[in-house]
Design brief:
100 residues, mainly alpha
Length: 100
């Protein structure tokens, strides 16, 4: 069990360092045609509300779904890269992740 946990921890650390994302507010979702003093919700979310498509297999969709999808894509890339790395030293984090 400890090998599994150490591999999982290593995978998490690599995911944080390997795929840096910009943090903060996505300004593309802001509807600048709305005065925030009149309707802040519409100002902050208006462009997203106009363009967002809820996938057919989902009952709801939002920024957390986008984050989960992006993280899953990043983790898949890390796993595939580690699995393809035949030069990883035995016992290294990359080798443990490849084994995982």
């Amino acid at each position: 069990m400890s090998k599994f946990l150490s591999s999982l921890c290593a995978l998490t650390l690599i995911s944080f360092s390997a795929f840096s994302q910009t943090a903060g507010i996505n300004t593309a979702y802001i509807d600048k045609s709305v005065d925030p003093r009149d309707d802040f919700y519409q100002f902050a979310n208006g462009a997203w509300l106009k363009t967002a498509k809820i996938p057919g297999n989902e009952s709801a969709w939002g920024s957390f779904n986008e984050i989960i999808d992006r993280n899953n894509d990043n983790l898949k890339k890390i796993l595939e890269e580690c699995a393809a790395d035949k030069t990883a030293k035995p016992g290294s984090n990359r080798q443990k992740i490849a084994d995982f």
